[in-house]
Design brief:
By secondary structure, the protein is of the alpha/beta class. It folds into 3 domains: about 100 residues, 2-Layer Sandwich (Gyrase A, domain 2); about 250 residues, 3-Layer(aba) Sandwich (Rossmann fold), CATH 3.40.50; about 170 residues, Isoleucyl-tRNA Synthetase, Domain 1. The strands form 4 sheets. The protein has a 5-stranded parallel beta sheet with strand order 7-6-5-11-12, sandwiched between helices. The two termini are about 40 Å apart. The N terminus is likely disordered.
């Protein structure tokens, strides 16, 4: 019996194709009407229409030969369904037709076997085979040095970590690379201000990252009155580029203060990234890219700069600025070259904001021109922004929200929801508050499609009811508590007539590995998040309407089996999303 995640509708499509093949042969029709890979099998919106469905009959009916033979798509669908039912495989209980759609219902034995495969970890072993010997470099988080870790970088960090976990689950070797924004003209502004601070007798070593942000905001506030400061900032950054010791000293202080701040945030979020290699590492390597472009004869002069023309694009890719300095784009190309040489990945993925879309289109195009990577080896996962209701965040205006403060407040608010008379000690309350608070922030992001913008609002980010992490965490805790109290053995045998709620829950379990796959392939963890929420809803309904403990032994044993599989899915699924489960809440 084949696992659902192996066929994921494919086996069903194969049986449909065999039925069509027989029909075509019987009628001497051209098999090109429908190729095996053209058959789309999907999950119906309503469970009453089965576990899988296909509209192949509607597509086939568009052919004149088919219309000459059958009166309607419904008639063709019934004809095909009859052929399938005559040779029905064990994992299908029945095939029905509704309005031209052919609907398939998986057998109870098959659904139970999928639950067993989840409990005995066979599912995970099979999933890991999908990515054997494949390597991915995943570029995510990437905060900007000298700025507090703002909530704007939350999405890249959380979504990136979930993608990392998803592909690790599928057997890929994933290298997480934190490409810090530690280079750029903004350091000219900061060096100017730090020199001024030190000239007033203040110790720069005692500054905080908040002080750095305040200095940056103050500099840009002065620009409206003193526009000549812009040139001073450029001179300072140019000095840094040339290796000036004083400029480098201030720059290194900015990095040291920032990394200390970021570690606190990553620890709170439970994030660990394999490599931390800043943009500055690639400054000298960018010249190698420029040299490669010269050797290949694709680098041309344009208004004093050096650029590469791109096919079908009006705007060329600037490699070297008019002052001779390399660009952000050339450094990103050096990054691709370095990653290929060091890790030889099958895929390099950038989890970076949608506002960088044009930049990465240019980077990927030039990478292909220079032979650094093929088109299918580079992927930009573009997430939407987190915004104020009135617009975008701006560090220059001082209107960022610092992520550490958001996390701390989320934990405090979660702590306020814990009942005073609960049986948790103080240490346990702290653990629950952190898990619920941090989980709430993460899930609020991961449950949404990455490309959409998110409006920052406390009532949404810290919503601990309904479609929230707390709801899923409590469903897991409920499962754990039942299994901990149960006296009966867990048994997958069914010796009684199942209630509707049991059937609905059972029909949800086999989807778990499929949701892992689609979340990875679409680079969108929201598919998994949505599935876990719907599973929790079905389990809670089952819990409310079906007595689990103190039932007949065979009933209790099977209901504990359903509870055990649900607990395993919630535990594994939430870990993939980076959310902690709790045995007590």
């Amino acid at each position: 019996m084949s696992n659902a995640f192996v066929f994921s509708g494919k086996k069903i499509g194969d049986f449909l194709y065999k039925a069509w093949e027989k029909t075509a042969i019987d009628n001497d029709w051209d098999m090109k009407f429908l190729k095996k890979d053209d058959i789309e099998v999907f999950h119906p919106a309503l469970s009453i229409h089965g576990d899988y469905s296909t509209n192949a009959a509607l597509i086939l009916f568009q052919q004149q030969e088919v219309r000459d033979k059958f009166s309607s798509p419904f008639a063709l669908a019934n004809y095909l369904a009859d052929i399938i039912n005559q040779n029905k495989p064990d994992f299908i209980s029945e095939v029905k037709v509704v309005g031209g759609f052919i609907n398939y219902y998986l057998s109870t034995d098959y659904l139970v076997s999928e639950g067993i495969n989840i409990l005995n970890k066979k599912v995970y072993r099979e999933l890991k085979k999908r990515g054997e010997e494949k390597v991915m470099v995943l570029d995510y988080s990437a905060p900007n040095i000298a700025k507090p870790f703002g909530i704007g970088h939350l999405r890249s960090t959380i979504i990136g970590q979930a993608i990392y976990n998803l592909y690790s689950c599928l057997g890929w070797k994933v290298i997480g690379d934190n490409h810090l924004g530690d280079w750029g003209t903004q350091f000219g502004s900061l060096i100017y201000m730090l020199k001024e601070v030190e000239s007033k007798g203040k110790d720069v070593d005692n500054l905080t990252i908040q002080d750095l942000e305040n200095l940056y905001v103050e500099f840009h506030g002065r620009l409206s009155k003193y526009p000549e400061l812009k040139e001073e900032a450029r001179k300072n950054f140019r000095a840094l580029e040339m290796g000036d010791k004083v400029a480098k000293k201030y720059w290194e202080k900015c990095i040291k203060l920032s990394l200390k701040e970021y570690k606190k945030v990553y620890d709170l979020l439970g994030i660990k990234i394999d490599e931390t290699i800043g943009e500055s590492f690639y400054v000298e390597k960018a010249q190698e890219v420029v040299d490669d472009a010269k050797k290949q004869g694709v680098l041309i002069q344009s208004l004093g700069a050096q650029v590469i023309k791109l096919p079908k694009e009006k705007v060329p890719a600037m490699m070297v600025k008019t002052d001779g300095a390399t660009t952000y784009l050339s450094r990103d190309l050096a990054t691709i070259k370095y990653r290929r040489e060091r890790w030889n990945p099958n895929l390099i993925v950038y989890e970076v904001g949608a506002d960088q879309k044009f930049h990465f289109e240019q980077v990927f195009s030039v990478a292909q021109i220079l032979g650094y990577a093929k088109k299918n080896e580079l992927k930009h996962v573009a997430h939407g922004l987190i915004r104020w209701e009135e617009g975008k965040f701006s560090t220059r205006k001082g209107s960022t929200i610092h992520l550490e403060k958001v996390i701390t407040e989320a934990i405090e608010r979660a702590k306020g929801l814990i009942s005073d008379d609960c049986q948790l000690n103080e240490g346990e309350k702290e653990e629950v508050a952190k898990a619920v608070g941090v989980g709430g922030i993460k899930f609020n992001d991961l449950k949404q499609e990455p490309e959409r913008d998110i409006i920052f609002a406390w009532d949404k980010i810290l919503n601990l009811q309904g479609y929230s992490a707390a709801y899923l965490q409590y469903a897991y805790t409920r499962c754990f508590s039942l299994l901990d109290k149960a006296q009966s053995e867990i048994d997958s045998k069914i010796d009684y007539d199942l209630e509707k709620e049991e059937i609905d829950l059972l029909r949800s379990l086999y989807l778990f590995p499929e949701k892992i796959i689609i979340s990875a392939e679409q680079f969108s963890p929201h598919f998994l998040a949505q599935y876990l929420f719907e599973l929790s809803q079905k389990y809670n309904l089952f819990y409310q309407r079906c007595r689990i403990i103190d039932e007949k032994k065979e009933v209790e044993s099977f209901r504990l089996f359903l509870t055990s599989v649900t607990a395993e899915i919630l535990s594994k699924g939430l870990r993939i999303l980076g959310i902690q489960t709790l045995e007590r809440m």
